[in-house]
Design a protein that fits this description.
The complex is a heterodimer of chains A (about 270) and B (about 475). Chain A has about 270 residues and is an all-alpha fold. In chain A, about 75% of the residues lie in helices and about 0% in strands. Chain A has helices at about 1-25, 30-60, 70-95, 100-115, 135-160, 175-205, 215-240, 240-260. Chain B has about 475 residues and is α+β, with helices and mostly antiparallel strands. In chain B, helix 2 runs antiparallel to helix 4 (about 70-100), helix 4 packs antiparallel against helix 7 (about 165-185) and helix 7 (about 165-185) runs antiparallel to helix 8 (about 405-425). The chains are: A mainly alpha (about 270), B alpha+beta (about 475).
Amino acid sequence: MTSSLSLSITTFIYGAAACAYICGWVFKKNFMNHSGTYLTILALIGNTAGIIFRWVESYDMGIGHAPLSNLYESLVFFSWTIAIIYLSIEFRYKNKTIGAFAIPLAFISLAYASLPSVNNNIQPLIPALKSNWLIAHVFTCFLGYAGFAVAFGLSIMFFLKSNEQSKLSLLLPDFSMIDDLTYQMIMFGFLFLTAGIITGAVWANSAWGAYWSWDPKETWSLITWFIYATVIHARLMRGWTGKRVAWISIIGFFAVLFTYFGVNLLPGLHSYGK
Amino acid sequence: MKMNFQKNALWLFFSSIKLSVFLLLTLAVVSIIGTVIPQEQSIAYYKSSFGNLWGTVIWLTGVSDTYHSIWYRLLLGLLSFNIIVCSIDRLKANWTIIFPKQHNVKPSRFQHKKDRKAFDVDKTESQIRTLISDYYSKKLNHCELRSTENGFYFFGEKGRKTRLGVYAVHMSVLLMILGGIIGSFYGFEGYIQIPEGESKSHIVVGDNHHIDLPFAIHCDDFSVSFYENGSPSEFKSVLSVIKNDQKIMTQSIIVNQPLRYEGINIFQSSYGLMTPEYQQKLPETVMFYFKNSENELMYPVKISKGERKSLPEGKGYFSIQEYRPDYAFGGHSLGPTIILSLETIKSANNDSELSTQMIMLPIQYQNFDRMRNGQFIISVMNESDFLIPESQKRYYTGLQVTKDPGVWFVYTGFILMLLGIPVTFFMSHQQFFIEVIQKSNFTCQIILSGITNKNNLAMKQKIDRMTLDLKNNINQQSR
């Protein structure tokens, strides 16, 4: 119970943080930006507490397992990874405008988790999920997804800035910084997506005897991998920057979303992610 | 001459990054097809769901098994070839950079850079010389300190070998593809069901193709445990490997813990009941619930086979006519069903005239009798007595049996890729150049610059930090 309560409160704090960052950007109010940072830190603490409480609660119920086993738990973890990646960027690059594009994603993820259609009961693990690979696989995959999510936010920012009529674009970081950060996030996401696919393959090989079965989620993760591999090659070898990278980053994120949610519409081995 | 040109054109084609980008995007797009169109179905299925024409097209083009079709393999083959040619091409060009016979420093490469950092210090040249040499020789490789006309320069570098990272990543992709090919030629993936206490030595691959194993698998025992909500928590088989009538080993397997023997892996995959779920005979007594459909009053009545008992409220009599362990009605299986004979009084005035009626009560569907719209809604209460007790149930275990000699290539590829990507992305070959020019007897100008093979922005920051670092060091020394 405590976990769902702390996560409900956290949802509102993320919402407030997102508003603060957006207001800070639109109205050029520095104190709004600062409160955005504090709210995000607070939300991250709440989010972490929620995950830990849920973990403990599952043990109290006698079906203890890491809270990474269904859609609800993955959404909670997704917003956690987005927040943690965003905060590390903020501390490193000292730019708070990015928060207006990243924290709303953390908020949406947690808000989606609280919809009644998403089952938030703590369920016992089905035999296939009882493995130490569960944590490694989900952790790496979602770090990857979150990296791509932040890259997506940055790409949206890039297009807003290219729209020169808008005065808001002046307040955004300069093109080269957005571009560089987008690419950094894509590399980060790519590394962890790769690690996620590999841990998944090793796990599948120990559970089902086949490291690759062309299950829709596997295939879509590979499609996502191909897309980001393309942008990395085009950039390193052909010097692609700016708009073209931003476009592929947006397309890539839609592939990520489809890998995450869309494949639930298709039959396959990952059906417990619904 | 003509031959040479052709070879070059082909080589250029395969070593082009355009081809890589094209192949990666094409693979991404065509991979979608296989997730949208159901795979490995019969031609009849495709014809019925996509129409005659499109169904045939799907079948003939191999879209029915996208990832094993000739054109998908051709794309992967082209990608492999592209990777090989590109790697050879670039490795040839970079070989002398990665493994130079001699480390020759070309000061002009650094001196022409625009973003050099320069500052003056009040020190003699010799003081700075020892400081820089002592400080940076420990941190950097291939250091070189050389006097110039009016001072000296210091060169150092690190991460030269990180240039190999990208080849490791590309090599890893090739290893994975190679592992996949080996697996598809020399491996298999099949399935067997073994009832408890029995053994089998062949498996079924695909629809009905049999493969003989070099040993027999005996299922000593199977058990399944459930969570409180009824979903399975764990299923476990105790298996023995039998070769030449001798028991080689016994091991219990669960879903994430397979048995591996002689390169063959045996996985717990499913289970099922050999015995039916319900009793073949009627239990001693059956408890019926009669619910008056008007006032909702409930009457439990116990009855055995052969008995004739009164209906509640004196409405007549009833008896069990028949028990069918699996009753089919109108083409649907209703499972275990009791046929009840109901004798109801026709009119309130005359209680000797009875009308007889047969009704069916499927055990699994408690509300079935509602549809009859009778005086009473009848249901069976003691459903659990109809189930076969756990101790008498006999299970079979469903095992996935695989062999894949390519898996070690794939795993080597995995490790190489996980090591290679961080090196390729986040490490670089960095070369630093510090030039010291004596301006007067007690003043020197120090100029820092750096060259890297990627991430120039990070290099710029690094030079800034080095400048600060150096200034601090020099100031400390003077104290």
